[in-house]
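An example makes the point: we let one protein speak, the chain in one-letter code, the fold tokenised, and here it is:
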Amino acid sequence: MANTYTISDLAKEFDLTTRAIRFYEDMGLLQPERTGPAGRNRVYSARDRTRLRLTLRAKRLGLSLTEAKEIIDLYDSPRDTGVQLRKFLDVLVLHRKQLEEQMADLRANLEEVQEHEEEARALLRKVEMEK
């Protein structure tokens, strides 16, 4: 019998709230089986667990949930792994470029802050010397 997990099992294992897991389900990243009265109980498969792990890894990389879903869905399809890897590389290249742009902006901002800090220190020294 395949391993199955409750929403509480996954929440505890991945240190998430059950609300976050339900959100990932709403986004189509997870597709648990529904059991019990009116299908209120969620039963997650090993596949769902793996998809959740991959989703969290994609988030750590800074990918959007939409990007994560696209990539994870490719691995579920019977397509050639070359297609999957090219898509993954495309997303990573785009994301790296965005991060590099953000880093350049942060560096420029840091330089500006340092300039203002130096000016403020010089003015403070001047004020203190006039006393």
Notes: Residues 81-130 form the longest helix (50 residues). The chain has a mean pLDDT of 90. Strands lie at 4-5, 33-35, 41-45. The first strand starts at residue 4 and ends at 5.
